[in-house]
Amino acid sequence: MQLRALRYFSQVAKSASLREAAEKLFVTATAVSRQIEILEHYYGAALVERSPRGIKLTREGEFLAQAIHATLTELDSVKDKIAASNSIVSGSVRLCAAESLMSSFIAPAIAGFSALHPRVTFEIETGSAPHIAAELLAGRADVALTFYLPVSADLQITHSCELQHKVVMSHQHPLAVKSSLTLKEVAQYPLCIPSENFAVRQLMESAARREGLTFDIRYVASSLDVQKRLAVLGLALIIQPQLNVNDSTDHDQLIAVSLADPVMGRVKVDLCLPRQRNLSMATRLFHQQLAAIVVRQNG
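Predicted structure:
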């Protein structure tokens, strides 16, 4: 049995369809199907159920997926040990983070890290805090950065910082001339906010109840790119955290105005690792790189 078949099946277990797995592996769906057939022939059992809604692992497939995950993790650790003995850091870092932290925290950390350790690869996923916590707990991520990480005895918050929530809008928006904004002023204009499982949405709903306000929620979009595009077009205001150091909206057509609110004004960012799990050297070193950026925001 080839290692390729195990890696392909591991990706299939994480995907909703063979096409999605193939895209993540940079191969064709036919190549993925062929590797699954090899495994099914080897084990003498159906491992995947196919339907118009996608794919689902059989009970036997679930058993195999768990075993493959443990095997690949162990093989990667051996690879790290061999590389470490040769003073070369290699392997893969599985990272999960809030999308709005990608350009300000994650990308700079990866750029600095890759300059020192070019052999290390990254698997990056974005999502809400509950999703990120679930990925860490399930062993599908090694390090995470997000807002208000759910409390768990199996997760360790190693570093934190606070960022300021700002109202982001087009330069042509009537509120763009303000030096700071209240929630009452924000409530007078259309908003684009993420879905209910995102912390900023929950904070806004809590603030609305506290202040007796009704927000004009015109658009709901979890994608930050979609939110920013609507803001550029002048269709909506968006609320997102901004850095304390090197503050930027990441777009020359947008402006960020401070939100003056005792609850929503600040937002906590947590850097997290799973407890009681052996981390690769690459993950440990990248965590240090990312931690330095988080600490700098507290300065």
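Summary: Confidence is low (pLDDT under 50) at residues 244-250.
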